[in-house]
Amino acid sequence: MLRYTLSRLQSLILSLIVASIVIFATVEVVPGDPASFMLGMNAQPDTIAALREQLGLDVPLWQRYLHWATGLLGGDFGTSYTYRTPISEMIGDRLWISLPLAIYALTLSTLIAFPAGILAATRRGSATDVGVMGITQLGVAIPNFWFAMLMVLVFAINLRWFSAGGFPGWEDPLLAMKALTLPAIALALPQASILARVMRSALLDTLSEDYVRTARAKGLTRRQTLWRHALRNALIPVLTIIGLQFSFLMAGAIIIENVFFLPGLGRLVFQAISQRDLIVVESVVMLLVFAVIIVNFAVDIAYAIVDPRLRGNR
Fold first, then answer.
1. Which of these, 98, 88, 96, lies nearest to 257 by C-alpha position?
2. What pLDDT is attached to residue 104?
3. C-beta separation of 162 from 181 below 8 A
4. What is the tens place of the pLDDT at every residue in 245-257?
5. What's the whole-number average pLDDT of the chain?
6. 228 by DSSP, 3-state: which?
7. Which DSSP letter does residue 309 get?
8. Could you give the CA distance from residue 112 to residue 128 in angstroms, rounded to a whole number?
9. pLDDT tier at 314 (50, 70, 90 boundaries)?
């Protein structure tokens, strides 16, 4: 197990190094100069040059990358070009919205998908199976931003059960969770549809294995066989999807955050791009990539826990 973990850790570190280079290079080659954007079209060349020097944009790219990367290692994300405030503070304020939203949505997705997938698999070919798969197909097909706007129209404008957007802060946790409920549902339902279909497919494959039939032949009931043998072995592809979903919910919630006017990381990236605040874009995207890689690392470790055979293959 230790050898397997160290192998995964080595891959994690290499992935982070490559990701930092790709992110920095990709953002830096985007057309447009932050100093020129900040000063406007009528700015004088010497004024632009002075601002570029002040922002550290006049040094070679490789030096700027090294300064940025070494700062990340020490927890220093740099200073925003536009707001002149530490990016770590900007991220910290918004992370307490995006992270709970992602966890909330992933929890809802899992709570919906597991029973639906298991129910469909255990009743294969029945009307229940067809109904569950039909609903999940609809959930996959509907864009989450359209579903989000529909929920705002129904539950916020017509029924007035929830607010249409904004975030009141965490002074009142119940009010904060209520503000995150509609965005979390909008994010969770498409993901729950995907996860339920994967759960059903993986469980059906597992139920057809020889050891499952052997367990039934030894006298175990269908329910005992399902919970003791089939379900655990069906979790490996499901864990993969859950890991990818959490990564998506953290990094891909920019549209939902804008629909509900949530000041999270996605909205911060959107604003930074529009303002050419490149260092904010680089730092936030790197943080999100770090979260993706860490989640994938945790999923790999979970693989080894669920299926001990993987430990001997590393």
1. 98
2. 92
3. yes
4. 777 787 667 788 8
5. 81
6. helix
7. G
8. 15
9. very low
Query: Who contacts 33 (Cβ-Cβ below 8 Å, separation ≥6)?
Result: 48, 52, 57, 276
Residue with tokens 């067809």: 130
Token code pair at residue 21: 């280079």
Burial class (CB in 10 A: 0-12, 13-18, 19+), 10: exposed
Residue type, 92: G
Most confident of 189-193, 210-214, 303-307: 189-193
- Name residue 86's beta-bridge partners: 79
Q: Exposure pattern of 263-299 as b/e (b: 16+ CB <10 Å)?
A: bbbbbbbebbeebbbbbbbbbbbbbbbbbbbebbbeb
Strand partners, 79: 86
Q: Tell me which residue of 231, 175, 224 sits closest to 206, measured CA to CA.
A: 231
Residue type, 193: S
> Bigger pLDDT: 234 or 264?
264
Confidence check: pLDDT of 170 > 60: yes
126, pLDDT greater than 50: yes
Q: What is the CATH number of domain 91-274?
A: 1.10.3720.10
C-beta separation of 191 from 143 below 8 A:
no
**What DSSP string describes 173-219?**
HHHHHHHHHHHHHHHHHHHHHHHHHHHHHHHHHHHTSHHHHHHHHTT
Exposed / middle / buried, residue 203 (Cβ in 10 Å: 0-12, 13-18, 19+): buried
Taking the CB of residue 159, how many other CB atoms lie within 10 A of it? 9
- 31: tokens are 């057309």
pLDDT band per the 50, 70, 90 thresholds, residue 108: very high
The single residue listed with the structure tokens 């798969």 is 133
For residues 82-96, average pLDDT: 85
Over the stretch 227-245, which tens digit does the pLDDT of each residue have?
766 777 777 778 778 877 7
> Rounded to an integer, what distance in angstroms lies between the CA atom of residue 78 and that of residue 87?
6
